[in-house]
Design brief:
The chain is of the alpha/beta class. It contains ten helices and eleven strands.
């Protein structure tokens, strides 16, 4: 809520301009409370959003912090390691816990596309000192904002899987079809519970499932089917079998934290809230085959020899 390029801003929820005075802001807040209060026929979800918006911009300090942005431009760095870039999340210096070994740059492909399109949309000769400035981002066309939203979703997933520990290996932004650069797997996660193809999405609206596929006002195409096809294609190239496919969505956009959809084209599929991802990856997916012992090392080697980054 409020932290996605696709979501309404706190100012939008309260119905005021970003340069509204403190008095106008307070009046708008009280009005929106009356309009959305469940006891007067309002919508409970909207009532909660109004309260959350006031928490974010209701005081001078909170408003100043909010106006500085939500970290749309904050990404994580990586350093070369052999032939592949190794991604490292930003951590506190005192944090010395072993982490999953990660390759590739999560969200990098979509961030590059976003930067190209935001500059094209702004127009030639227009100076964009900060292409991630919140007001600029929220004013851009939906397809541009969607690229950034998905990049942020991929980065959020990468931070979670990095915490799984040294028993896991992760590849980010993997090219799944050499003939089509737009076909990629957001993440491949290998660990004792299995080998997973992972899709990180932010549609900016609630999502439901029906007959093994995602549905919703903002859902375009067949994300689950495309994920499974990409996983099967890469699996054939690397001569490995994926255990399952996982779709990761923001917590606010799913009804159930973990929803197993059964098999799609022979591959088990599960839709998970972001906060439940680590649990699923550690315990595994129903119907998915575990990978252990020498097989785990063999699968890792095959993937290292096959994976190319988008």
């Amino acid at each position: 809520m409020f932290d996605s390029p696709l979501s309404a801003s706190a100012y939008d929820v309260l119905g005021v301009a970003v340069d509204a005075s403190d008095d106008d802001l307070r009046k708008a807040y009280r009005l929106r409370l009356r309009q959305t209060h469940p006891d007067t026929g309002g919508d409970a979800a909207q009532f909660v959003q109004v309260q959350r918006a006031w928490e974010l911009i209701g005081t001078a300090d909170a408003r100043a912090a909010y106006d500085r942005g939500h970290g749309f431009g904050a990404t994580t760095s990586y350093a070369p390691d052999g032939d592949a870039p190794v991604w490292r999340p930003r951590t506190r210096q005192a944090d010395t816990r072993p982490r999953a070994r990660s390759f590739g740059q999560p969200g990098g492909w979509r961030r590059e596309r976003y930067l190209d399109l935001i500059r094209e949309w702004a127009g030639r000769g227009v100076d964009l000192p900060d292409p991630y400035e919140p007001a600029l981002v929220r004013s851009a066309p939906h397809e541009v904002r969607r690229l950034l939203a998905d990049a942020l979703a991929e980065e959020a997933t990468a931070r979670i899987v990095a915490e799984l520990g040294m028993g896991f290996t992760v590849w980010h932004d993997v090219a799944a079809d050499r003939r089509d650069p737009d076909v990629k797997l957001d993440h491949i996660v290998l660990g004792p519970s299995g080998l997973y193809a992972v899709l990180s999405e932010d549609f900016g609206a609630p999502v439901r499932t029906r007959r093994g596929e995602l549905e919703g006002d903002a859902v375009v195409g067949s994300p689950v089917a495309q994920l499974v096809l990409a996983a099967r294609g890469l699996g054939r190239a690397a001569k490995v079998k994926f255990s399952a496919a996982i779709v990761v969505l923001p917590d606010d956009d799913v009804i159930m934290a973990i929803e197993e959809l059964g098999k799609v084209k022979g591959l088990p599929v599960v839709v998970v809230a972001r906060s439940a991802l680590a649990t699923v990856l550690r315990r595994g997916v129903a119907g998915a085959r575990e990978i252990g012992g020498n097989e785990l090392f063999d699968v890792r080697t095959r993937l290292q020899q096959t994976v190319r980054f988008a």
